[in-house]
């Protein structure tokens, strides 16, 4: 029989109050706290903490604190990516952010989901689906990306949009739910 952690990592329903999972949450919270309270001018320490916290953190990338995540090791950030203040990466499943991405303030990347049925929700069951953000994507301030979504390369998502389904490459999408309004100009 698989552990709750194994179930979580394979996208199966699991219960987050498992002690092994709790220890990983505590690790991420401690590292996030150190990052979020570090001297803003100490770029070397901030990079060191991000490399320890995250699954991957590309060269010449920047994340402006505060950063909030569940586990950290499930979030991967490509090279030359800029993430503004207030990112929430609920990385129960893998969150992949490509190269040359621009992410505005207060963006939420939400991989977990809960059963709709009352009984399993009451019993604290949840699961998660990965999020993938392609290269050269721009997410405006306050964008929310829901579980299982892939955003294609070069796509722009307008401020405040809620992305509920995949977006193709080279488009501009806005609204709630996000909808494509035009192609990206070359």
Topology:
Layout: H1 4-9, E1 14-15, H2 19-37, H3 43-53, E2 56-57, E3 62-63, E4 67-69, E5 75-77, E6 82-83, E7 87-90, E8 95-97, E9 102-103, E10 108-110, E11 112-113, H4 118-122, E12 125-128, E13 131-133, E14 138-139, E15 144-145, E16 150-151, E17 156-157, E18 162-163, E19 171-174, E20 179-183
Parallel strand pairs: 2-5, 3-6, 4-7, 5-8, 6-9, 7-10, 8-13, 9-14, 10-15, 13-16, 14-17, 15-18, 17-19
Antiparallel strand pairs: 1-12, 11-12, 19-20
Helix pairs in contact: 2-3
Characterise this structure.
This protein is of the alpha/beta class. It has a single domain, classed as Hexapeptide repeat proteins (UDP N-Acetylglucosamine Acyltransferase, domain 1, 3 Solenoid). 22% of the residues lie in helices and 29% in strands. It contains 4 helices and 20 strands. It has helices at residues 4-9, 19-37, 43-53, 118-122, and strands at residues 14-15, 56-57, 62-63, 67-69, 75-77, 82-83, 87-90, 95-97, 102-103, 108-110, 112-113, 125-128, 131-133, 138-139, 144-145, 150-151, 156-157, 162-163, 171-174, 179-183. The strands form 4 sheets. It has a 7-stranded mixed beta sheet with strand order 3-6-9-14-17-19-20, with no helix packed on it. A 5-stranded parallel beta sheet has the order 2-5-8-13-16, with helices on one face. It has a 5-stranded parallel beta sheet with strand order 4-7-10-15-18. A hairpin with a 4-residue loop joins strand 19 and strand 20 (179-183). Helix 2 runs antiparallel to helix 3. The longest helix is centred in the N-terminal third of the chain and has 19 residues, at 19-37. The model has no long low-confidence stretch (mean pLDDT 96).
